[in-house]
Amino acid sequence: MFETKCPRCMDTEIKKFRTYIIKNGQERTIFQCNQCGTNFSETCNTALAGLRSPIPLIVMVLLSITEGTGINAATRIFNVSKNSIYRWQKRLGDLKDTLMLFALAHQFLQQVIEGDELYTKIDKNHPQEQSAGWTIVLMDRASRFIWDMQCGRKNRKMFKKAIGRLSKVLDQTEDLTLLTDGERRYGNFLFEICSEVVKTGKRGRPRKTLPKGVKVRIKNKGSQSHKRGRKRQKYQAPKPEHPETTQDIENKEIHANHLEAFNASLRRRCAAYRRRTNTYAKKENRLQERLDLIWIFHNFSKIHFTTRRVPAVALGIMKQGIQVESLFCIQKIG
Predict the structure, then answer these.
(1) Do 291 and 147 have their domain in common?
(2) Residue 122 has pLDDT above 90, yes or no
(3) 3-class SS of residue 266
(4) 9: pLDDT confidence band, cut at 50, 70 and 90?
(5) What pLDDT does residue 334 have?
(6) Please, what is the average pLDDT of the chain?
(7) What is the pTM of this model?
(8) 268 & 166 share domain
(9) Most buried one in 58, 85, 171, 280, CB count within 10 A?
(10) Which of 148-156's residues contact partners 24+ apart within 8 Å by CB, and which partners?
(11) Do 119 and 265 share a structural domain?
(12) Domain identity same for 8 and 103
């Protein structure tokens, strides 16, 4: 599935050149490229390159911090330094782009995607509108595969970045539905990025709609009776949709309940998101590294408690999940 490639010419025609022994006594292989003659180790461009710590220890630490253990607690339990844990999670988190490209290489008939946000503090207790701890999550409802999980300030840039990723998923899907709870910017930015013109042959400016097969629905939560102006409908399509798009969504299906359940589990599994405590992320990039790590484990390694399958397997892009130890052997792109 993930073939070993030459780091110089990216050719897969390689052969075993020789072996060598590392300090812990493990044998590793040097490969030679048949195309350009480059010699390279089996750990080249992987998360294993240059690591001296035992892989079982690294796996235990990373699994621990993605199941609710804080960094300080992990340093005490496993007797390792903070910098080592940060280095390990960044190395494995860098694999996200490679796995995302692998997922986007597949075609999908239909997807129902839920979009929602959750919040935590970054560095200090700033007002919510100034905090970089807002996290957007886009998840496929059937498989529980998470397409995007990015943190930052809750502004135009953040939403547009998330919808930009969704537009790539849209290119690989024939029928895509996006469901959100109250946040209209998902549909607005999707319309802005990938709307198309419908020509009817009539005079006047052609009408813009969402691409054929794409549907966006919003469930407006809470009462708006105290607000001035026209009251919003409970279920809405924020932007015009293509006239040939099949309208088969019932109102009772317009919700983000599955994603809300994931957000609740994330508050248990990541110390930075816990409520009623003073724990919070110190830096935005550290929080994003942790989210990338959770994204990889959730999508490609762990069996979901509801579907009883690994999300990538349920989505149909893999036949079986990837062992955490095997993730360290996958070559990164670039």
Answers:
(1) yes
(2) no
(3) helix
(4) confident
(5) 62
(6) 89
(7) 0.91
(8) yes
(9) 58
(10) 149/291, 149/292, 149/294, 149/295, 150/288, 150/291, 151/284, 151/287, 151/288, 151/291, 152/284, 153/129, 154/117, 154/128, 154/129, 156/185, 156/189
(11) yes
(12) no
289 domain-assigned: yes
Give the residue, 199 or 141, on which the prediction is more confident: 141
Q: Are strands 39-41 and 27-33 parallel, antiparallel or unpaired?
A: antiparallel
Distance CA 142, CA 248 (A): 16
Q: Is the pLDDT of residue 217 over 60?
A: yes
Half-sphere exposure of 110 (CA within 13 A, CB side): 7
Residue 38, CA distances (Å) to 3, 35, 47, 78, 87 in order: 17, 8, 20, 39, 28
pLDDT of 277 > 60? The answer is no
Domain of residue 128, residue span: 98-198+206-223+231-315
Residue pair 310/303 in contact (Cβ under 8 Å)? The answer is yes
Record the tokens describing residue 42, joined without a space: 């089996």
Position 325 in a domain: no
Number of domains in the chain: 2
Contact 247, 213 (CB under 8 A): no
Round to whole Å and give the CA distance between 69 and 288: 17
Residues 134 and 277 in one domain: yes
* pLDDT > 70? residue 156: yes
21 and 145 belong to one structural domain: no
- Considering Cα of 315, then 317, then 322, then 327, what sign does the dihedral take? negative
pLDDT digits (tens, 9 = 90+) for 231-254: 778 899 999 999 999 988 999 999
One domain, residues 28 and 104: no
Nearest to 111 by CA among 209, 187, 216: 216
Among candidate residues 178, 165, 195, the one with its CA nearest the CA of residue 110: 178
